[in-house]
Amino acid sequence: MAITGDGMAAEGALPLHAGATANRAPAPAAAVSGDCEAQDIGYRGPTACAAAGITYRQLDYWARTGLVEPSIRPAYGSGTQRLYSFRDVVVLKIVKRLLDTGVSLQNIRTAVQHLRARGLADLTRMTLMSDGATVYECTSPDQVVDLLQGGQGVFGIAVGVVWRDVEGALSQLHGERVDTGETLVGKNPHDELARRRNRAG
């Protein structure tokens, strides 16, 4: 499926473009297991940055320009904290990788819209391929091979691998319950700050 650009691809994998997912219903969230993607858990900016491998300046700029906005809670003036979902953090990490490989911001914006429109189960099976100008979605190894043989694919991002990387990183960091604001302590045994904060509260 095509995400961005005007390139022609091998059969089964076409360049993604704006509106490519307009008629596609996302898969139900329940199709993916695990705790990190729970919709009642959010991650503050510094945690999202650490898990995605980006700077806070990048996070802030992408949120202010609408590239990747927090889906749980945006910042409302000074003193409020953005709250990102697990999917948001996965998208942040993918955006970072696309930028690092030279994909244009315009094409990345279209790719982000496409990723947000897909169901969670779809994301874990997806590979994004690019030649630096066009981004392609592949959902099977055969499509990846066809793109490589046709010269369209220079690099690939296996979204399922990014998903697991983010899941592992967030398991060591702190989340926040959306309903109560309670800090959820990661599995890092060296960090007692959140435990003390919860006990004091």
Description:
- Helices cover 41% and strands 11% of the residues.
- The longest helix has 15 residues, at 86-100.
- The termini are far apart.
- Helix 1 (45-52) crosses helix 3 (86-100).
- Residues 6-11, 18-35 and 189-194 have low confidence and may be disordered.
- A four-stranded antiparallel sheet has the order 2-1-6-7. It has a three-stranded antiparallel sheet with strand order 4-3-5, sandwiched between helices.
- With 201 residues, the chain is of the alpha+beta class.
- This is MerR family transcriptional regulator.
- Residues 51-114 form the HTH merR-type domain.
Gist?
This protein is of the alpha+beta class and 201 residues long.
Strand and helix layout:
Layout: E1 41-44, H1 45-52, H2 56-64, E2 83-84, H3 86-100, H4 105-117, H5 120-125, E3 127-130, E4 135-138, H6 141-150, E5 155-158, H7 159-171, E6 175-177, E7 183-184, H8 193-200
Antiparallel strand pairs: 1-2, 1-6, 3-4, 3-5, 6-7
Query: What is the H-and-E element order?
Result: EHHEHHHEEHEHEEH
How many DSSP-defined strands?
A: 7
Helix content: 40-55%
How far apart, in Å, are the first and last alpha carbons? 50 Å
Q: Order the strands across the largest sheet as they lie in space.
A: 2-1-6-7
Q: Supply the helix-strand structural class.
A: alpha+beta
Beta content: 5-15%
- Main β-sheet description: 4 strands, antiparallel
Enumerate the spans where pLDDT stays under 50 for 5 or more consecutive residues.
Answer: 6-11, 18-35, 189-194
Rg, alpha carbons: 18 Å
